[in-house]
Each structure stands twice: as C-alpha cells, then as structure tokens.
Design a protein that fits this description.
alpha/beta
Length: about 375
C-alpha cells in the first residue's frame, strides 16, 4: 500500500462525507447481533450506520487523522446535539449557528481532533460534510460549471424526479445536450478529477478513459434511479441533502446510533497493520470501501488472504470498484466465495452511482 500512497497528503480532509451507499452496504453485510465489524472510516457515516445493525463492536480504520477527526466530530454531535442540529452542523440543511453547535460538541473531542477543528472555523461555518477536497470539487462543478449548461429551473426539474418514463424523456429531450456531454468529458476527466477531486495517485491502477465510464453511470442514475431520493445527487447539485438523507442521518436511525456509540472504536492504522495484530476468526463483517483499487492486484490478494484468516466462517466482505476492477482471485474460491447474486441485486440500487461494481464475498 505504501508504494502507491506514499505521495498522498493525508493531513487534510479528502472526504467530508461518505460517498458510498450504506443502504446496500448494510443489506450486503447483514451483521448479526453480537458480531464484530471492521469498517474503513472515511468521514464516518457508514461506520456509524453499522452501529444501527446491532453489532457488538465496530472498529473503524483509516490512515488519515483528518478523516478520523471527521468521524470523531460526528460521534460528538450524536452525543450532544438533537437530530436537526446534527444536520445543520454537517451542512445537510441550512444553518446560521454552526459555530455555536460546534462549541457544544467541542468538549467531547480528543485534544488532537479539537485542535484540528479549532483550526478550521471556515469548514465548520460551511458544514463539516462540505469540508473535503472531493466536496470542493463538486462545489466548483455546481457553482461554476453546471450553470453554463443547464438553468436553475432545469436542475430543479431533474431533482424533482417523477416516474421512470418521465425521467427518461426529460433526460433525452432536455438534459442530454452536446454541451452537457462536452462539459462532463472535460470536468470529469482523469486530469481534472485527479487535481481537483481525488489524488492523482488514486488513478495509478486505472486503465482507459474515466469520464465516459462515469457519464454512462450518471445517465443511469438520472433516469433509472429517482433523483428526488438520492442524497448524493442532491448534494452534488444543491450543496445539501434536503429530504433525501443518507442512512446514518435519517431520523429513524438517530437514536439507535446514539445509544450504541460506546460500541465504536477508531484507530489510525492501515488495514494491513490491523490484520497483523488481530486474532483469527474474530470478525463477522468488513466494510472495505474502495481501498483495493488503490493497490496492485498482488497486494489486494494478500490482504484478502489475511482477511479470511481473521474472519469467522460466514463473515461477509463488501467493497466497491470505481475504475479499477478488483475481487478475490479464483485461487481463493475454496475459502472465499463471491456472492454474485447479492451483488447483482444490490448494485443497480446503488445511489452512489459513480462506482462500476459492488462486490460481496463470504468466507467459507
């Protein structure tokens, strides 16, 4: 992992929110009560969603102290804020009191995370979920690029959704213009995305064009999925979630997550280092985000082998491929089975539409 990520700057927030759909993640993993789950932290949303499943213990891992500070701020907010205040602090809804809300959370933070957020008052004022490089990339798109192609009225019409036939007709007749396609190919190219959105190192193992593949998935999300119910699309186009909240932020999940925060721990640690120190047969569920596409296939397979060793029988793994295809090798089929039917059922439901594949596997 070090050979690919050595050049990546982990001192700043890359993702102010989790850009992976917890609804399909939880359905894929189905952790049982009393189980141990391991989760790549990112900004913390999906790790917190795992708490709502009844898991006995959730362990969050991340190489980045900045990403763990995002998780820690969320934990503090769940402890001391009301649900509507949590949404305001993160930026899901509008607010004029985010500094005051942060001040109430501050005493719950460790000194390191307190210093981190104290030094970023502008990020707090804008909303913690908007604080990442990836979110700033979408803000540039929303404020400066999309208005060159579509009017506010067209954007509102798109986000209103409607029945599938109406969505397809609107997309083909009004949205899918030559200006839209040209803009998309430029702004979501490997070059622009690598400098404004993700780190260029994250494209090391990606082959072929980037924008065309993402454009195809975007067309699917705007027509076959309902934009009115898609929190990721709502944020990209409006800068907030509105009523389309991701799993961890929905009111029906708030109290369950808050009541189980003592079951959560987080570590600034690589997955490899964590696996080197864990007892065999300990873990029942793995949220692995999209970490494998940043690694050579050989290293992915080595990690999968260690994950199997650390898992109990029946443990499930879930992870995403965005641009680089990754999954268990055929040589591991006797120990790790691909749940292709589960993945094929859940993948088309993925509201975080830019991923090419959702992979679900089970330890034999």
């Amino acid at each position: 992992m070090a050979e690919t990520l050595a050049s990546v700057d982990f001192s700043e927030i890359r993702y102010g929110q989790c850009w992976e759909d917890a609804d399909i993640l939880l359905e894929a993993l189905r952790p049982e009560p009393g189980s141990v789950c391991v989760s790549i932290a990112s900004a913390g949303d999906n790790t917190l969603s795992l708490l709502s499943t009844g898991a006995d213990r959730v362990i969050a891992l991340d190489l980045s102290a900045a990403q763990l500070a995002c998780l820690e701020l969320r934990v503090a907010a769940y402890r001391v804020l009301a649900h509507n205040e949590l949404l305001e602090l993160l930026g899901s809804t509008a607010s004029t009191q985010r500094p005051e809300l942060y001040a109430r959370c501050r005493a719950e933070l460790t000194p390191a995370s307190r210093n981190f957020w104290d030094g970023r008052p502008a990020a707090i004022a804008k909303g913690a979920a908007a604080a990442g490089k990836f979110e700033r990339y979408f803000e540039i798109f929303r404020r400066h690029v999309l208005p060159l192609v579509h009017s506010p009225a067209q954007i509102r019409r798109l986000l209103a959704g409607g029945d599938p036939d109406a969505r397809r007709q609107f997309y083909s007749q009004e949205w899918d213009t030559w200006r839209w396609r040209l803009m998309f190919r430029l702004f979501f190219s490997r070059f622009v995305m690598g400098r404004l959105g993700r780190d260029p190192a994250f494209f090391h193992y990606v082959e072929g064009t980037v924008a065309e593949r993402i454009l195809k998935r975007t067309r699917y999300a705007l027509t076959e999925l309902d934009p009115a119910r898609n929190p990721y699309l709502q944020w990209i186009l409006t800068g907030g979630h509105g009523k389309a909240l991701p799993h961890a932020l929905r009111p029906e999940n708030f109290e369950m997550i808050r009541s189980r925060l003592d079951r959560l721990e987080w570590r600034q640690q690589s997955l490899g280092d964590f696996l080197a120190g864990i007892l065999p047969g300990s873990v029942a569920a793995w949220n692995l985000s999209d970490i494998f596409e940043y690694l050579p296939e050989r290293q992915c397979h080595e990690l999968l082998d260690s994950i199997v060793h650390a898992s109990r029988r029946g443990a499930r793994l879930a992870y995403w491929n965005m641009l680089a295809p990754r999954r268990r090798p055929e040589a591991m089929a006797d120990r790790l089975a691909s749940l292709d039917e589960v993945a094929k059922r859940l993948g088309p439901q993925d509201k975080a539409f830019f991923y090419s594949a959702f992979v679900v596997e089970v330890v034999r």
